Amino acid sequence: MISAETRAQIRHWFFAEHWKIGTIAQELSIHPDTVRHAIESDRFHRAHTLRACLTDPYLPFIRQTLDQHPRLRATRIYQMIRERGYHGSVIQLRRAVATLRPSRPEPSPGGLGALRRSSSRPCPPTSLLFPHHFVLLPSPIPGILLRSNSRKLLARPCPRL
Question: What does pTM read for this prediction?
Fold first, then answer.
């Protein structure tokens, strides 16, 4: 515990003379935390209060809309709440929608992967398939590529994409 005179000296050096906490601690041969306690620097580090966001009054409507239509775009929701009096930016709304949007379910590991068009890459010369065909990428069998056209289905090792 420090005396009232030492506390007054610390406060004078810190507030009037603008000495640093480490300099005061060295001068008085005391711990820097004792100096911080004497100048009550904890008062200056208050927790910041969160300000209200412009989207706060519309969050129940956004939540209800996303529950009914989970794939609805944020720009469409923006148009809908603009009609209800929202004056903020679409960027703020996108941030709010990103936190409220329900997550997409993970694809089942036993199901087939995405169907995609593979005309952007040339077919290998051994495939004997037409240049425009569909490719199925099955997820349970890594490294196997199924190619099909109207006549046949060919399974072969998948080249690195």
Answer: 0.40
